[in-house]
Amino acid sequence: MRIDLHTHSTASDGTDTPAELVRNAAAAGLDVVALTDHDTTRGYGEAIAALPEGLTLVTGAELSCRYDGVSLHMLAYLFDPDEPALLAERELVRDDRVPRARAMVGKLQELGVPVTWEQVARIAGDGSVGRPHVAEALVELGVVPDVSGAFTSEWLADGGRAFVAKHELDPVDAIRLVKAAGGVTVFAHPLAVKRGECVPESAIAELAEAGLDGIEVDHMEHDEPTRARLRGLAKELGLLVTGSSDYHGSRKTVGLGDFTTDPEIYGEITRRAAGAFPVPGAGGRA
After folding, report:
1. Which residues share a beta bridge with 59?
2. What is the distance between the alpha carbons of residues 167 and 2, in angstroms, rounded to a whole number?
3. Which residue among 48, 73, 153, 159 has the highest number of C-beta atoms inside a 10 angstrom radius?
4. Considering only CA atoms, which of 186, 189, 187 is closest in space to residue 219?
5. By C-alpha distance, which of 23, 52, 76, 6 is closest to 276?
6. With contact defined as beta carbons under 8 Å apart, do 33 and 47 qualify?
7. CA-to-CA distance for 269 and 267, rounded, in angstroms?
8. Cβ-contact 127, 94 below 8 angstroms
9. Do 241 and 265 form a contact (C-beta atoms < 8 A)?
10. In terms of DSSP H, where are the helices of the chain?
């Protein structure tokens, strides 16, 4: 089995629609794919309607969190999307996205960049607007060569000249909320240092104590020594180890299934989940 547990669609900041994403996942030879858009479950219906036969969909989300001033992302799988407390927190994050993006546009204009809100809104389309959409606007304007080039201290990285903070969950609260909604939590790309400051290993231990289920180890932004270090930490803390592409379509060079999760780990995730079940493909209706 080939299992990719971290992908994004146009419901947040990917470039594939949810329907395109599941079709592309099947074409890439995946058996299981998780849809984990940022702080939203809006893509579920379209993805399920288009799900090809032979592909199983894991519903999820990537939750925006902050620990001691450091941003981190928490993958949540197979939770009840209608559970009120978790839904309320996701809506708080979602509602903060537009004011935040507008504020980043304002900061960039103050820095002499001729970006407009209309440009960013066009790029975001129906998705949950975020930094990658602002970054793509900078690419269009020739300010940076690619999206990754915008995530520096000069521009949009945490603490950068045009950075604006947004509402984010405390990760311990996120774990508690996801558990209460019947879901499973995995710390996404915990040592992706190119993105900025990462939380210390002591924080991962604290999250494990709070009920964290796993950590994402095999990821494009973890080199081999980092993966080995994380595997050792996971063993020490009793955490599951996952691997995922963090696919964003054309916004990143990584492809669907470039990194995958062991079937036994996937089985354990599904066993722990009580809020939702994986959806088997029925041939697609859209």
Report:
1. 35
2. 35
3. 73
4. 189
5. 76
6. no
7. 5
8. no
9. yes
10. 18-27, 44-49, 84-110, 117-124, 131-140, 171-180, 201-209, 224-237, 263-272
Query: Count of residues for the chain?
Result: 286
Single-letter amino acid code for the residue at 210: A
DSSP 8-state secondary structure symbol assigned to residue 122: H
Provide the terminal-to-terminal Cα distance of the chain, rounded to the nearest Å: 25
Per-residue pLDDT of the chain (286 residues; tens, 9 = 90+): 999 999 999 999 999 999 999 999 999 999 999 999 999 999 999 999 999 999 999 999 999 999 998 999 999 999 999 999 999 999 998 888 899 999 999 999 999 999 999 999 999 988 889 899 999 999 999 999 999 899 999 999 888 999 998 889 999 999 999 999 999 999 999 999 877 789 999 999 999 999 999 999 999 999 999 999 999 999 999 999 999 999 999 888 899 999 999 999 999 999 999 999 999 997 654 4
Which of 24, 105, 12, 109 is closest to 61 using CA atoms? 12
Q: Is 243 exposed, middle or buried, given 0-12, 13-18 or 19+ CB atoms closer than 10 A?
A: buried
